Fold:
Amino acid sequence: MGRYLRGRLVTAIPVFFGITLIVFLLLHLAPGSIVDLAGEGSARAAGQAARVEAYLGLDRSLPAQYAAWLLDLLRGDLGTSYASGKPVSALIAQRVVPSLLLTGTGVLLAVGIALPLGVLAAWKPRSGWDKAASALSLVSFGVPGFFLCLAGIFLFSVVLGWLPSHGMYASGSFSGLGDLMRHLVLPAGVVCVSGLGGLIKQTRSACLEALGEDYITTARAKGLNDRAVMVRHAFRGALIPVLTTVLTHIPHIIGGSVVVERVFGWPGMGSLLFSGILSRDYPVVMGVTVVIALAVLLTNLLLDVIYGLVDPRVRYAAGCSHG
Amino acid sequence: MKRILSLLLTLTLLLAGCTPAAETPVPTPMETPAEERVVRYGLSNAWDSLMPYNSPSGSNYSRIIYDKLYDRLAYVHADGTLDARAAVSWESADGGYAALFCLNEAAAFHDGTPVTAEHWVQTITLMTDPDCPAPGRSVFAVLAGTDDTGAATGERLGVEAVEPYTLKLTFKAPTTPEDFLLDRNREFYVLPTHLLGESAPEDVLSLELWNAPVGSGPCKFVSETAGSQLVLASNPDYPLGAPGFDRLVITVMDKSNLLTSLIAGDLDYYAFGGSVSVEDAELARQAGLTVLEGEVPNTFFELMLNNETIASAQVRRAMDLALDKQSLCLQSTQGMGEPTATDLTPGTGYTAPVTWSRDVEQARALLEEGGYAGQTYKLACTANRSGLAALMQQQLDEVGITVLIETVDSATMFSGMVDGSYDMAIASHTPGALPLWFTESRLSEGNNIFHVADLAPYASYFSEIKGAADAAVRQALVERFQEFLAGERPFIPLWFGRALHVQSPTVEGIDYPSSSFSNENVWDWVKP
Structure:
């Protein structure tokens, strides 16, 4: 196991740097820089744009810029935001926890709803549970997150006046759990609904597949009741694909939800990434990319470990995948 | 499992409470007054650094933030009239080459230190130091002793503390104090130079001070989540009066949620001036909000042209004649705008005998004369103007000009015009009161965004107009320049638009229209 993990870690390193290189190139291939944003408001004075570009280091060649960024990264420095002038690591530190809170709550809610509903839908096909699961999946897959945000705001903030339409706190800083929870409900609800479809469908189909296995027939032949067969055997057999779906949400939880955070003015990683892209703030976008890439790679590693714990048939060998 | 979930949730909530958003200590709930008056302010784009001369984008979203934390010399109304702010009065000096500003002696930084003329002198001296990398330095290029980028040349710098509370600015060309303020006021701020210590000019931008800035504006810094939320407190000692609220919470959020949040009562105001489209204004009225019709133009629309790829002036003039500005303006402003033949802002006193009317036949004749060979031009626009671009495409097609539309973001559009990737682009700007507000900075060697081959005639007009002290002489020169522009047509003026402002009943005293000058009278705002 240890050798296997070390092997996976070693292969993850070039993948990580590959991701950063691709994102870096894509960012710089997009036309315009932060200096061009002044165009709408006022034109720059003579020579000023070039001077600002030189100040930000944008006048260097792309390989030189990437090499400088990489060297800083290896020293543990994610650079300084062009726009705010603050260290990117400090910006990320400010934004990670709100994202964890928002997306984490949304995903937890989605898991809490999707797992039992998916199991029930598989257990009792064409029942009310199955229909509810299908309807929820349809809404989750079919309605864009942006529309869900606006519909939620219209219904719960404008019409009913129950929930705040934006922000994390009413007065700009923490003033009690109640205030935070009220602000959390709508955006977390949207994250939950957006994630429900995949989880329900995955749980239902994995359980249905497990129900057709020989060991389920054996369990039934031994006289176990339906509930025991479903919970102790079928669901356990379906756990690996379900776990995969659930755990692949981890990078999403850390990286935040761009649309939801943007619409609700939630100070998370998603909105940081969005404003970074919009303002061509390359160090910020690269910093968020580093965090998300690490989360994805570590999640994959975590999944491999969990597969072994959940399914004793999974054995590890250095340099090859489970099996 | 349940226990673990509960534990995780509790832990996350606790962590959220400890989010390191604050750069300075934020009052704990125990210290927060029970009936705190909070003004909730929405902004659709993030600001840059809180150091006012360290804004690489130089956007209005940053300026509107600096306006609260730092003081400016004057307050500019939407109609171009000026009110005292850091300066209580001003007058011209040295034959029009200088302006004297009498500073408000009651003005003080948020740490209590009085603001003197010496602070202004030190600020400008420091920012114009060639070793200081301030991106916002170009604002000082109007002062004597600076080069085109605003860096000090070593000659006598055009800033002086004549008396402790009298500031003298000396210009390169004769400039009235009013013209200077209309042009530059929103970019001139005084810094707390007494807090900069022995910092070298090259290090000034990266000081810790800018994480919790001390200004002399109407609001004090409380906390910031950079690019997302800024919490400010009322400055009770602001000379023009303490803002009538305890806190101002500025949140960056999507445009789509600004009006709904105002209707829901979760926002008290959004920048700039609660501006709203005609369709949304009706929605706001139905929701019981008051909608104010702006009386002075707050937007100028133009069709940017690439004079290198559209090299013939006849072809450019043909495009001008081919466009039905009336219908374009109607489509865009829903009746809240007027087509124009010039970039001269209506109501400023400057006029030109240049008129516009659509003439398809004459446009075709000019195209032939200009040797248009049927090439396809690339028209760039942002997503919200794609409908407008499609209309333009149809109208240009009527005279035989083929146009391909590319919908891109703002930065891509401007950089595409700069590097010549696009032949034309639709842009809008906040109009200025001066006759050269639009042309001077866009038709210069350093920012020749229209790719004009010979800028010499333009430079000559600029110099003559700026140097004309007599109003009648200046007006005559402006007329000549506008006629020259009509002949050359380096860009196509489209229309001036007026804004509709949605007013929330939850805050009183807001001067909505003046926000177009990136200043807001927060000292008059009252949250009942």
